[in-house]
Amino acid sequence: MAQADAGSAKMGKRPFRFHVIIFFVGMFFTVTLWDAYYNGSRPFDQEIASSLILAMGTLFSIAAGLFSWSLETRRASLEKEVEWRTRDLQETNKELAKKNQEVENFIQIISHDLKAPIVSIQGFTSILKSELGNSLQGTTLDYFNRIQTNAQHMNTLILDLLEFSRVGRMEDEKEAVDITSLLKNILEELRPEIDKRNIKVHLQDRLPHLWGSRRRLDQVFTNLISNAIKYMGSPQAPMIEIGFSSMKGDYAYTLWVKDNGIGIKKEFQEKIFQIFQRAPNPLKVEGTGIGLSIVKKIVALNGGRVWVESEEGMGSQFFMTWPKTEGGALKPESNLSVSQVAARNSSNEIFN
Amino acid sequence: MKKIFMIEDNEDHALLIRRGLEGDDSSVTHYSDGPEAVKACRQIQTQDMKPDLILLDLKLPGMDGFEVLKSLRSLKWFEHVPIVMLTTSSRKEEIEKAYQLGASGYVTKTEDFGELVAKLKRVKDYWFHTVEIPCAEAVSHERAK
């Protein structure tokens, strides 16, 4: 609003006088012209011509006055509109700030108020356990352990929820991340688990550089790969394949992580991307169900999409699209919207 | 005997911390809110009456941990008393703010009680000059010699 005010002050508002003056200036020229004609020495049609000039001139002057007045009105109404829009934006900003504050308070509640009781439960349970010592046996000991396991689980859930809320709330620094070297690092870290299960990992050559936060991309691939490891089961030749496809003119790369593990039933293939939702697994793999929801959130925030193709017992292939961006700006060849890309990159069209 | 002041509104946590800390070498006085603690500290007239260590919860109702910290640091004998913050969330912004206001360190109230007790003992021993190496998360500036 301050800007709009400054603008109108600079331009100044033209008083109504101004438009009347325009009219009179017009009239002055008209009368002068008419006078010149009337007193001139035209032989005939003098009367008609001069009357015509007078009438036309008058009309023209009125029109000029009105036109200038209407321009002024239009300018004033434009200024009003700018003012309204600015006020609207300010309202929206205020609302956003309020929402941010609410989120901040919510995080505060999660990280403090929900955790505080767990500290108490765990504290008193372990004191009781150590005081009761050997007299704690059988079912009583089992129940004690269950209390502790549950409190621990609650704590993990809270930490996961905090991590989930952190994605997108914190500004992540973006860069062109070399996916090949990123994946090599991740695989190195997961090496013990991979070797233990005799998994063959195959990386496609010349994987692209993705524009994004290294930390978040690491999170995405670590989650996908460690899921592939955890839910491998025991196929004859366990393998994980990581690859990508990119067609010329595509807005985004499509990357995938494929395994030949236990697979996921159809009815859970969408659910598993929701926070704390897991498909029942015969392997009894522990977890809270946070990983894929974080993957989905990160990918979505970067303008991509994730989905899975899988059949129970036949392995899974997790796909994600990631916009081909450079320095945060889209490459010139791409003028598709994110949703168009999502629709175009749907699994059926590209991969079946 | 060394004196520890603990300012903690959560009675359960106070009970647990007291249990984890109290030993032959120290006594713990508990205050359940900021104003009460500041009032008690203000009444201290002699050097030897002042506490050797203060454990201050960050999230207190009414006057919060930061305000208590500021008030305590402005008191006559309290400029160099180690004030260690207790936090459940251990949020970066909170800890930074506490350090700026003169906190000597912080301890996260971990849900693992054994770990919490170990951390508190370590903090106590460090500030009572019985160990030289501090607990990693709990130190800001050098101990007063």
Question: Quick summary of this structure?
Answer:
By secondary structure, chain A is of the alpha+beta class.
CATH superfamily of the largest domain in chain A: Histidine kinase-like ATPase, C-terminal domain
Q: For the residues shown, what is the average pLDDT of chain B?
A: 86
Largest interface: A-B, 17 and 16 residues
Main beta sheet of chain B, described?
5 strands, parallel
Given helix and strand content, the structural type of chain A is alpha+beta
Number of domains of chain B: 1
Kindly list the characteristics that best describe this protein.
heterodimer, A: 352 residues, alpha+beta, Heat Shock Protein 90, 3 domains, five-stranded mixed β-sheet, two-stranded antiparallel ribbon, 10 helices, 9 strands, 59% helix, 12% strand, disordered N terminus, B: 145 residues, alpha/beta, Rossmann fold, five-stranded parallel β-sheet, globular
3D structure, described in words:
The complex is a heterodimer of chains A (352) and B (145). Chain A has 352 residues and is an alpha+beta fold. Chain A has three domains: 2-107; 114-166, no CATH class; 175-351, 2-Layer Sandwich (Heat Shock Protein 90). Helices cover 59% and strands 12% of the residues of chain A. Chain A has ten helices and nine strands. Chain A has a five-stranded mixed beta sheet. In chain A, strand 4 and strand 5 (252-259) form a beta hairpin. In chain A, helix 2 (16-38) packs antiparallel against helix 3 (46-113). In chain B, helix 1 (11-21) links the parallel strand 1 and strand 2. Chain B contains five helices and five strands, in the order βαβαβαβαβα. Chain B has a single domain, classed as Response regulator (Rossmann fold), CATH 3.40.50. Chain B is α/β, with parallel strands linked by helices and 145 residues long. Chain B has helices at 11-21, 34-42, 65-73, 92-100, 113-127; strands at residues 2-7, 26-31, 53-57, 83-87, 105-108. In chain B, 37% of the residues lie in helices and 18% in strands. Chain B is globular. In chain B, strands 2-1-3-4-5 form a five-stranded parallel beta sheet, sandwiched between helices. Chain B starts with a strand and ends in an 18-residue tail after the last helix. At the A-B interface, helix 3, helix 4 and helix 5 of A face helix 1 and helix 5 of B.
